[in-house]
Amino acid sequence: MKVIILAAGQGIRLRPYTDNKPKCMVMLAGKALLHWQLMTLRSLGLQDITVVGGYLSTQLDAPDTKLILNPNYANSNMVSTLFCARELFTPGEDLLICYGDIVYQRNVLQSVIACESELCLAADRQWQKLWSLRMENPLDDAETFQLGPHNKVLELGKKPHSYDDVQAQYMGLIKIRGDCVEKFDVAYHNLDRDGLYDSKDFDNMYMTSFIQHLIDNEWDVSAALVNSGWLEVDTADELEHYNQLIKQGDLSSLFDLDKINAA
Predict the structure, then answer these.
(1) Model pTM score
(2) How far apart are CA 194 and CA 86, in angstroms?
(3) For residue range 129-161, what is the model confidence (pLDDT) as tens digits?
(4) For residue 230, what are the β-bridge partners?
(5) Residue range 2-121+172-195+224-259, CATH number
(6) Using N-to-C axis directions, what is the helix angle for 106-114 and 33-43, rounded to 10°?
(7) Residues 127-159: b if buried by 16+ CB within 10 A, e if exposed
(8) What residues does the MobA-like NTP transferase domain cover (predicted)?
């Protein structure tokens, strides 16, 4: 299995912590987000890891990984960053895609790896607990995530009208089955470069918009459902709050650092 970590963004909402380092290098409990993630990946024997950098890429510290750059990081989004690593897509070999601003326990990664669908998304059923720590009104920043039978994903990435629209929360951890890697690439390159995708141009398309396109074209997209066990670090206030809660020992029910690389 190949692993691609998307770490090109500027992390504007994390300033001043990202004034002189990429978003994935900010410190959570004394260790960079990227280093926590690498620990989890390697605990399950995943060694073929590539980081796609952009903003302040010379400050990326990712031992024993490959580095690819998105030179247009300031004017593009996650999907464009992913396809900067297109050369690594190997038909027949599973591909794991990870956002650079998340950390997750080993059991979360195990759930995604075990999924046998064409495309699998880690999704948190207990997302409201985490979102309530992050903001006063969890619905303000949540996105729709609608499931059908057998955890098939029907819709994601839209603005929810109520909590009923959010059966889980997409986490930024994706696995593409090896026999689908080539058609994943083809699906992207067949998109209209002049089109709009959830009001975004091609280069700034959200990952959820691309995944929804695949769903609408009858891809078998499933959720690997988990109950907590991860964090997304998006703002300076969140980072400071998480670090304080970890110091106090009050975060372990949602995310346990001791389970980063242990069962």
Answers:
(1) 0.94
(2) 21
(3) 888 877 778 888 889 999 999 999 999 999 999
(4) 104
(5) 3.90.550.10
(6) 50
(7) beebbebbeeebbeebbbbbbeeebebebbbbe
(8) 3-115
